[in-house]
Write a structure and sequence with these properties.
mainly alpha; two-stranded antiparallel sheet; about 55% helix; elongated
């Protein structure tokens, strides 16, 4: 919906997300992050289209391009689990180094 704003008009987007299949295994928190990333991508494309920059608004691969969940989900995954994975890899490498002595 469109609502008046101080410097123009604000677009408010509300979603009702129903996730099934493999994507549902990611968990609610991660899905919220991914949905947020998708909405940001949508907002950038809409802004570009409204400002007459259609080439920026067109999705890679054309209008029928499929959603690549892996490409959208990597940043939220990295934010949530990057430190844990880094500590695990570091501990594994330290164990290998100490085990060779």
């Amino acid at each position: 919906r469109l609502v008046p704003a101080e410097n123009g008009t604000r677009l408010v987007v509300e979603t009702d997300l129903s996730v099934t299949g493999r994507a549902a295994q990611l968990g609610r928190g991660l899905m919220e992050d991914v949905a947020g990333s998708l909405l940001e991508q949508f907002a950038r494309g809409l802004e570009a289209a409204l400002l007459g920059r259609a080439e920026e608004a067109a999705p890679v691969g054309g209008a029928a391009a499929e959603l690549d969940l892996g490409a959208v989900a990597w940043q939220p995954l990295l934010r949530r689990y990057g430190l844990l994975v880094g500590v695990g890899v570091g501990a594994f490498l330290l164990g290998l180094a100490l085990g060779r002595r």
